[in-house]
Amino acid sequence: MSVLKVKCISKTYGEENNKVKALDEVDLNVGKGEFVAIMGTSGSGKSTLLNMISGLDSVDKGEVLISDENINNYNDAKLTQLRREKIGFVFQFFNLIPVLTVLENVTMPALLTNSKKEEVNNKAIELLKLVGLGSYIHTKPSLLSGGQQQRVAIARALINEPELILADEPTGSLDSKTSKDMMNILRQFCEELGHTLIVVTHDANVAAYADKVVFMHDGKICDTLNLKHSGLKDNEVVRVIASKIEGLSL
Ligand SMILES: Nc1ncnc2c1ncn2[C@@H]1O[C@H](COP(=O)(O)OP(=O)(O)OP(=O)(O)O)[C@@H](O)[C@H]1O
Predict the structure, then answer these.
(1) Where in this chain does the record put each ABC transporter domain (predicted)?
(2) What's the start-to-end Cα distance of the chain, in Å?
(3) What tens digit of pLDDT does each residue of 133-174 get?
(4) Distance of CA 219 to CAs 20, 22, 49, 224, 241, Å?
(5) Would the CB of 48 count as within 6 Å of ligand 1?
């Protein structure tokens, strides 16, 4: 079953002489439990694609379907509901609310849609235990390391059991060891709990955790690398991805 279908979407910004074609007839299918990494040169359209998928911006042409529902014609209220209930977001700089505790940060998106505070609290505690932060629930984010803060953000992204998790450079502000921990957690959520994940990254080591890597250039998907059952060893995967990116930058 497809969680996400992007059908021939295009997006142009600017007017007259200043037009930029950010997306040019992009197609993408992501199945349930699949982990897709999006890579590409700077300005190739990766963030624009994520914005179209989450309905933060509208397409000029084409369709975005989430669980077979076309979101193109959603009004603002329906788009807010879509982002709240069906999509979990993980950002480069965590975007946690500093005055709230770890537990309050994680429960917040759920309390906007579910008034059963005890039920939500229990679920958040369970998720925080899963990401290894069971003993930090009453701590404020500023007292945590970057990696710990990103774990909180992952738990927050999962609290509403979204159909799709979108992560824009989730390891961009973490060191390489913490990045590995983070990607192992996300990979585990995909494999064991069937979550569907799309990660935008510049890092071949991060993309290597995905089932499929799509490469963007000039607003188009110009290449796709299927890593599932590829038979490549871990170090070879990183090398192949890095050489494809190098090829795009030439
Ligand atoms: N709101 C906007 N207004 C005008 N131009 C935009 C807007 N958003 C994106 N663009 C342009 O569209 C193109 C694609 O941008 P986008 O941010 O999607 O690229 P990216 O691949 O995410 O880049 P990076 O890796 O540097 O973040 C760029 O040329 C960018 O300048």
Answers:
(1) 4-243
(2) 37
(3) 999 999 999 999 999 999 999 999 999 989 999 999 999 888
(4) 9, 5, 9, 14, 19
(5) yes
As beta bridge partners, residue 87 has 164
* 170 ligand 1 Cβ < 6 A: no
Our answer on whether the CB atom of 72 is closer than 6 Å to any ligand 1 atom is no
Q: What residue type is 86 in one-letter code?
A: K
Query: What's the complex ipTM?
Result: 0.97
Mutate to test the pocket of ligand 1, among 47, 52, 54, 220 (most ligand atoms within 8 A of CB): 47
Taken in order 232, 236, 237, 242, the sign of the CA dihedral is: negative
- Residue whose pair of structure tokens reads 């040019």 in the numeric block: 24
Report H helices in 112-145. Answer: 117-130
Q: Which tokens hold the place of 190?
A: 């995909």
The whole-angstrom separation of Cα 72 and Cα 213 is 26
